[in-house]
Amino acid sequence: MRLLSENPLSGVKVYHDWDDDAQQHIFRTDIDRIVSKAVVERNKAIEGHNMGKEMRLAASIPPEVQFEWLDKFGIEFWNPAHADGVKRLLNSNEYRYLRVNHFML
């Protein structure tokens, strides 16, 4: 496997390989779990802090969770048309740890 790209902010790495038997390209995406753990720990540390009157940080969603939502629910975190699905997931108990403040979205 050859590393094609690495994003130090998201922890996402993309690898490429060639399968001689199947005569096809193989691409693999890995996510550094340390980055995601750091996001969750930061969320816990700033939970409940006031971010100002005009803006409030609602949540931080690590890349591995974004991929999970796409795979499990077909929800694209970055797609404005999926905003209701993102809100529903962030308001659920399963993904509560991604939220920074306790207001409902």
Overall description:
The chain is an alpha+beta fold and 105 residues long. 31% of the residues lie in helices and 20% in strands. A 3-stranded antiparallel sheet has the order 1-2-3. The longest helix has 14 residues. The radius of gyration is 17 Å and the shape is elongated. The N and C termini lie far apart (42 Å). The mean pLDDT is 81.
Condensed summary:
The chain has 105 residues and is α+β, with helices and mostly antiparallel strands. The chain is 31% helix and 20% strand. It has helices at 33-46, 63-73, 83-90; strands spanning 2-6, 12-19, 24-31.
Secondary structure elements and their pairing?
Layout: E1 2-6, E2 12-19, E3 24-31, H1 33-46, H2 63-73, H3 83-90
Antiparallel strand pairs: 1-2, 2-3
Record keyword descriptors for this entry.
105 residues, alpha+beta, three-stranded antiparallel beta sheet, 3 helices, 3 strands, elongated
Mean pLDDT over all positions:
81
Tertiary shape: elongated
Uncertain runs with pLDDT below 50, 5 residues or more? Answer: none
- How many β strands by DSSP? 3
Can you summarize the main beta sheet?
3 strands, antiparallel
- Cα gyration radius (Å): 17 Å
Share of residues in strands: 15-25%
The oligomeric state is single chain
- How helix-rich are the residues, as a percent range? 25-40%
Spatial separation of the terminal alpha carbons? 42 Å
Order of adjacent strands in the largest pleated sheet: 1-2-3
Provide a count of the helices: 3
Instruction: Give the SSE order as H and E letters.
Output: EEEHHH
The helix-and-strand class reads alpha+beta
